[in-house]
Amino acid sequence: MGCSGCRVRFNFGKALSKASVFFTMVLIFTFFFYCLTGFCDSAPRTLYSQGASDYDMLDDLRPPARLQSQRNRTDSEQVDAPGQLLPQRVSDTRTETSAQANGIPVSNTFGTKRFPQALIIGVKKGGTRALLEFLRIHPDVRAFGAEPHFFDRFYDKGLEWYRNLMPRTLDGQITMEKTPSYFVTKEAPGRVCTMNCQTKLIVVVRDPVTRAVSDYTQTLSKNPGLPSFQSLALKNSTTGLIDTTWSAVRIGLYAKHLENWLQHFPLSHFLFVSGERLVSDPAGEMGRVQDFLGLKRVVSDKHFYFNQTKGFPCLKKPEGSSRPRCLGKSKGRPHPHIPSEVLQRLRDFYRPFNHRFYQMSGQDFGWD
What we know:
The structure is a single chain. 39% of the residues lie in helices and 12% in strands. It is of the alpha/beta class. The strands form 4 sheets. A 5-stranded parallel sheet has the order 5-7-4-8-9.
């Protein structure tokens, strides 16, 4: 009887052990089943985000990007050069984290980081910021908001570093950035061509005399102790010779700078945008830009109104917004008084350069 009781207890324990093993196997099988079917990926992920900045103040005007069905190409593929795919590197994650730490907006995780297919390369105080913000309304344009200065200041960081700064794009979208100092940087054309000699180049130009005064006004706002405009523009007030070593004057020699770029790119790769017409007829100039980029004409008259106080066009408010959007306080500053004889000397100085630029670009901008 005692032995019979032992056998019962032994059999019960053995059964319990088998049940435990069976239950454990069920749990393991269930876990692997969920992982293999993708449920493990449904856990929340960390998303990089950044509060609104001056660079992104017009993002809410952008129509929703075409959320196409998820592409076969995933984030594990990155475009390193036209027609060439490289595996995503660990450096991508490090660069995004670093960019976030340095206040650089990081795009969402959809799409692919590409080199820019188009660059706004100049000119300073010509209207490049306005052009970029107007373009960012277009659903097929993704632009880096800040000026990366890669081809003039940070080229030693390498093309991979530069590509990782760019926002992600879906198929059919264009990646862009703007840095006005590229146009006047001697090394920039060759460096851009090293990246891609098919890059489209946009130059926003403005009457060089007005541009020089605007350039001086901006510098003066940051440094109130700056010498007068005439003392900087003229080598000698008696002779009236223009000082071309002053950057505000030198930038306006558009023909000289364009010659440097034409050694690496054909004229067909350039679009010259009139800074004056970008103010008087923003929709018309934007139509030309969209055509040049091969985009559907989405940005039109309906997006603009003229701000009499600031003296330039602003973007109409989007639905759900309480007010329209204009560029920041740094735009539309009143210019200081410049003696008329100084301005006339500058106009005489620039005239032959302007005419040469008209011939090279095939456009008469009417600055004379």
